[in-house]
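Re: that backbone. Tokens:
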């Protein structure tokens, strides 16, 4: 009697244990409390609330009193609808659990893609230990979680179809997913990129077969047979791509929204950390996830070198589509650190597939034991080689960080009134709690404000006291409500200036926020009761 079924059972059980272990490791990094003071989440929730209350999608900068009529492309309005629906059912802990569930599901889908590409699950697990800390660098509840999920679904469906494991009719679901995607997050274009890569692979395969060169050159891993089938595949994929093109037009801004990924960075007047290149960040300071990214990038490149050498020596096949996607995602990760996570997901599927031995090798109990030892050793190394990464973790918890709303409770209890001068970081927080009663000076959407606003007003008023007085005269600020840990040079300078400014009284301070009130009749009672002596702000 053959012992192959027994071996397969052993392997399946071991793989299940490994997947559970990895998901638990990822879960441990996902379970962290929400810092609403600096998150975009508050604004997304307010978008959803407005949708359900008024059946409207905000398309002007209605949250700000500085540019209330300025139009902007609300490219993530659908996320607000989903987040607000979850929030009404489960509050902030429910949002945390929802985000965690989506993240774990996405991880599992890319795990399945790795298997689809022929990866040995043990090698996938080893690489996953490097990937997971990179994914954990983007665990704030943001719209991008849907992009990771949709990208995984797109790639799994397209590659399954390419390998004859999924019927063509299922590809018709992709335009439906794209319709959701374009209204949820700006990375919707990644779906079209994936389809386009597969079209180019089939065109390549068509000409290779047509010229009878498949035996002598690198040939893609197309498994649909003949030249005619490659031609047919191209036609089917072009139809899918056309469907995606129509779907992306079905957003509140029409073709402007469909083309927005090409132009969103054009008018950014505020330099965001997450949009900076890997090289730029590396030259500034030690970014904790960067070490894991460099390790993964080296493994990823080594995998492709091995795959290409193997293809040249005819020991394995070569997929131009996966190669093109790999190059594109490496480019994304190198040009903006916010793309570390999406690269990490792709690397989770592609790197082990490129490095894996042929199927059927090293499958015994001994191999599983050695793999378990390697997993333990690798995890230990991951934990000790980069202690700075683990020190920066905000701790464990669901829902909001404790006491994060104390400043807002004070604001409402004392019935404070604007106009409010706030900083970039806490705009979404104030929008969630105060709109429509109060509007903000600025929030963390650079695209919703003119380039000149940041360059000529927002930054200069914090650097130059004369500029502050000029802007104050224009807007007549009554409250200054700042995220206390604004680390920009102008933010720190501004806070020091206000502490020394007798025209303003600090009345509230905690680990998250500081509030100043203008000395006037309206604020006299609150200032008399709560003013913080200035000597408390002196260096110890």
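Recovered sequence:
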């Amino acid at each position: 009697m053959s012992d192959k079924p027994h071996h397969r059972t052993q392997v399946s059980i071991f793989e299940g244990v490994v997947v559970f272990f990895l998901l638990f490791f990822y879960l441990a990094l996902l379970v962290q409390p929400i810092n609403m003071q600096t998150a975009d989440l508050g604004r997304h929730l307010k978008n959803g609330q407005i949708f359900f209350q008024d059946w409207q999608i905000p398309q002007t900068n209605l949250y700000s009193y500085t540019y209330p009529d300025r139009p902007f492309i609300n490219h993530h309005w659908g996320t607000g609808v989903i987040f607000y629906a979850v929030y009404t059912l489960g509050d902030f802990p429910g949002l945390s659990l929802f985000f965690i569930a989506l993240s774990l599901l996405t991880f599992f889908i890319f795990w399945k893609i790795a298997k689809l590409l022929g990866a040995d699950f043990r090698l996938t697990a080893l690489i996953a230990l490097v990937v997971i800390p990179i994914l954990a660098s983007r665990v704030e509840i943001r719209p991008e979680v849907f992009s990771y999920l949709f990208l995984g679904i797109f790639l799994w469906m397209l590659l399954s179809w390419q390998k004859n494991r999924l019927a063509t009719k299922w590809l018709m679901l992709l335009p439906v997913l794209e319709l959701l995607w374009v209204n949820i997050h700006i990375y919707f274009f990644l779906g079209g990129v994936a389809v386009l890569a597969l079209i180019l692979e089939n065109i390549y395969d068509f000409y290779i077969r047509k010229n009878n060169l498949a035996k002598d050159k690198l040939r893609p891993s197309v498994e649909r047979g003949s030249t005619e089938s490659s031609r047919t595949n191209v036609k089917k994929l072009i139809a899918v791509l056309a469907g995606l093109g129509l779907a992306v037009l079905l957003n509140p801004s029409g073709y402007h929204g469909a083309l927005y990924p090409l132009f969103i960075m054009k008018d950014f007047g505020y330099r965001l950390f997450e949009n900076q290149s890997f090289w730029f960040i590396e030259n500034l300071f030690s970014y904790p996830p960067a070490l894991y990214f460099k390790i993964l990038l080296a493994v990823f490149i080594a995998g492709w070198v091995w795959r290409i050498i193997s293809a040249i020596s005819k020991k394995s096949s070569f997929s131009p589509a996966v190669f093109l996607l790999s190059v594109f995602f490496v480019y994304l990760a190198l040009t903006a650190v916010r793309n570390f996570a999406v690269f990490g997901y792709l690397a989770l599927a592609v790197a082990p597939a490129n490095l894996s031995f042929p199927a059927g090798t090293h499958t015994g109990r001994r191999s599983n034991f050695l793999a378990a030892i390697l997993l333990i050793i690798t995890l230990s190394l991951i934990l000790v080689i980069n202690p700075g990464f683990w020190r920066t973790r905000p701790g464990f918890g669901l829902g909001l960080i404790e006491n994060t709303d104390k400043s807002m409770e004070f604001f409402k209890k004392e019935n404070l009134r604007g106009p409010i001068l706030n900083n970039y970081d806490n705009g979404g927080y104030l929008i969630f709690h105060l709109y429509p009663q109060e509007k903000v000076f600025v929030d963390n959407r650079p695209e919703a404000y003119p380039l000149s606003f940041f360059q000529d007003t927002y930054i200069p008023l914090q650097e130059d006291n004369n500029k502050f007085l000029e802007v104050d005269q224009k807007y007549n600020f009554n409250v200054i409500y700042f995220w206390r840990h604004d680390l920009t040079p102008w933010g720190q300078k501004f806070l020091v200036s206000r502490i020394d400014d007798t025209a303003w009284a600090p009345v509230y301070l905690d680990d998250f926020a500081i509030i100043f009130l203008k000395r006037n009749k309206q604020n006299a009672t609150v200032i008399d009761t709560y003013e913080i002596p200035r000597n408390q702000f002196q260096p110890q």
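The CA atoms of residues 16 and 485 lie 43 Å apart. The longest strand covers residues 504-509.
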